[in-house]
Specification:
The complex is a heterodimer. In chain A, about 80% of the residues lie in helices and about 0% in strands. Chain A has twelve helices and no strands. The longest helix of chain A has about 40 residues. Chain B is α/β, with parallel strands linked by helices. In chain B, about 30% of the residues lie in helices and about 20% in strands. Chain B is built from nine helices and 13 strands. In chain B, the strands form four sheets. Chain B has a six-stranded mixed beta sheet with strand order 7-8-9-5-10-11, with helices on both faces. In chain B, strand 8, helix 6 and strand 9 form a beta-alpha-beta unit. In chain B, about 45% of the residues are buried. Classes of the chains: A mainly alpha, B alpha/beta. The interface between A and B is medium-sized, with 29 and 41 residues.
Chain lengths: ~280, ~290
């Protein structure tokens, strides 16, 4: 048993992957709670998918992925805003069209003959390929996001509770929403390296959704969400090491397992305590 | 929302002031002395407000003192919420002037808040402190203590640790009033607070509003219930324009009620002078 746990730690690649997923777990678990409470899961997933062309172009020209991703996410966000403002369709339809188009463009570029090998890492991430610098950047960005979330905690709580907070308690709802979306975008930007544009939504939404099943208090919700994200991340890396499965996908499977457990626990809990609807 | 429209300026500057209000969201918490202690909380002269330059409410003339309870009567779209938005500074006067020498807070209808949201009553009551704090400052122990005091004031001190969604409609309404009190609001704008309350909860709310007025807070209560409006110190009747403003005894006559609701009232048999409105006038969810 001890060998199962200690053996991977002798491997530098695995240790870096564990460090990376722990950092990502802490920041994603925390911001994920606001994504879930503000009903931004679809927007977060859309941003992650829509940034693919930026990542692919960066990979093709040899620019830093972080830069490509940032430009990609910015373009995706602007296009989404334009589409939802000008389209006669509902916002979710407009977003779906824009994001699918961007994602398709990204795939088209990725499959071109000139594209370097390993482009699938952009889709599914490359946890085992992270360098110490990657971990350091992820750590610094995560600390910034966490500091912002801590500072704005009460305001985020107030606006999520009452969208009319501007009128009732003078909190600027629009700027708070923009700041939150910006923090989500930055988190996606660092998390996408480990988990790819297709899997990153799982760590952003899964742990928070699991935490929401078992608690109705914000403090415990954030704590449980972070714990679930980190635990599932570490479990996924270990599983990937021993079973020789893809690291990112293993983390996602572990996240799903945790969510199902929480949903089960939640439904048992609700059976005991009737909830007023 | 914290609005402070300064009134200590010469009369000729007033129009400019009424369109250049000082929105103090996130401003410092010090309170300015009232220019007219005991009264002069708010006044409107020929006020028109609306959306996109099109007036939704015209001809508002009023003078409100501290510690008064004002019933706001009117049909759906009559301008009740529009007037609230003018008070909080969200809407600027199209013409005329409005002076508010107090911090305002709207108390929304509880059905617009989320019941499955992870907050306790104390969390919600503490949110009011954000109105007084700059954006980087978090509510501290003092603010939490003040929020707890306000929960006690509204009779929910023992429920402070309860989840907001577990309360009844009337209790939720009172938690939202506690939130407005933590914001240090001197003018509380209650949006249809009696909607969906049973008579026991309504009586509790009546008592609380009286108590708040006794403590010097001014409370404006939007309602569609004429009989209820008779209980307050003043009534303001709106139907796109101001129909009447004054003490309920002298104001709420048959003509005023008919003009307010744009239709005829149905006389209650055996009760001359009392009447009810046809059911379709009883609105919910005024915008």
């Amino acid at each position: 048993m001890f060998d199962l746990l200690s053996e991977p730690l002798a491997n530098g690649t695995t240790v870096r992957a564990l460090a990376e997923i722990t950092v990502l777990g802490v920041v994603s678990g925390a911001i994920g709670c606001w994504i879930v409470l503000y009903k931004l899961s679809y927007s977060a997933e859309s941003l992650a998918h829509g940034m693919l062309p930026g990542l692919v172009i960066a990979a093709l020209v040899g620019a830093p992925l972080l830069l490509g991703g940032a430009v990609g996410i910015l373009i995706a966000a602007v296009l989404v805003v334009i589409a939802t403002r000008t389209s006669t369709e509902t916002a979710d339809t407009a977003i779906a069209v824009v994001i699918t188009a961007l994602f398709g463009a990204g795939i088209l570029l990725a499959l071109s003959p000139s594209s370097p090998p390993g482009i699938q890492d952009l889709l599914f991430g490359d946890l085992l390929g992270v360098t110490l610098t990657d971990v350091a950047i992820a750590g610094a960005v995560s600390l910034t996001v966490l500091a912002a979330l801590w500072t704005l905690h009460e305001r985020l709580l107030a606006v999520g509770f009452d969208k009319g907070s501007e009128r009732s308690i003078g909190v600027s709802v629009t700027s708070l929403n923009l700041i939150l979306m910006g923090l989500v975008a930055v988190t996606i930007l660092v998390a996408v390296q480990g988990l790819g544009t297709l899997l990153v939504a799982a760590i952003l939404v899964g742990p928070a959704a699991a935490a929401r099943q078992v608690t109705r208090q914000i403090g415990p919700m954030i704590a449980i969400s972070v714990a679930v994200a980190v635990a599932a991340g570490i479990a996924g890396i270990y599983a990937s090491y021993h079973l020789r499965t893809a690291a990112g996908a293993s983390v996602v499977v572990a996240l799903l397992a945790f969510y199902l457990l929480a949903a089960l626990a939640g439904s048992l809990q609700h059976r005991q305590i009737p909830v007023r609807r | 929302m914290r609005t402070r429209w300064r009134s200590d300026s010469p009369a000729e500057n007033r129009t400019a002031i009424s369109t250049e209000q000082t929105l103090g969201a996130g401003a410092s918490a010090e309170r300015e002395p009232s220019p007219q202690p005991g009264g002069g909380l708010a006044s409107a002269r020929g006020l028109s407000v609306g959306y996109g330059g099109v007036p939704a409410l015209t001809g508002v003339e009023l003078e409100i003192g501290r510690g008064t309870r004002i019933g706001l009567l009117g049909p759906n779209g009559g301008g009740k919420t529009t007037l609230f938005r003018a008070f909080t500074g969200e809407l600027k006067p199209i013409s005329g002037e409005l002076e508010v020498n107090a911090t305002c807070a709207t108390v929304p209808q509880t059905d617009r808040t989320r019941l499955d949201y992870p907050v306790t009553c104390l969390d919600v009551a503490t949110m009011g402190a954000l109105a007084r704090l700059p954006w980087w400052k978090k509510p501290g122990r003092k603010d939490r203590a003040m929020a707890l005091e306000n929960l006690k004031l509204v009779g929910l001190g023992e429920r402070s640790r309860n989840s907001f969604g577990d309360l009844s409609g009337g209790q939720r309404q009172r938690v939202l009033i506690a939130r407005a009190l933590t914001a240090d609001a001197e003018l509380l704008l209650l949006d249809e607070p009696y909607t969906g309350l049973d008579s026991a909860s309504a009586a509790l709310l009546d008592g609380l509003i009286r108590d708040l007025a006794d403590r010097g807070r001014t409370v404006m209560i939007a309602t569609h219930d004429v009989d209820q409006a008779r209980c307050w110190d003043l009534v303001l009747c709106l139907n796109g324009t101001q129909i009447a403003f004054g003490p309920p005894d002298t104001t709420l006559n048959r003509e005023v009620i008919e003009a307010t609701y744009g239709g005829s009232i149905v006389e209650i048999p055996g009760q001359p002078g009392r009447g009810v409105l046809p059911p379709h006038h009883h609105d919910h969810g005024d915008h």
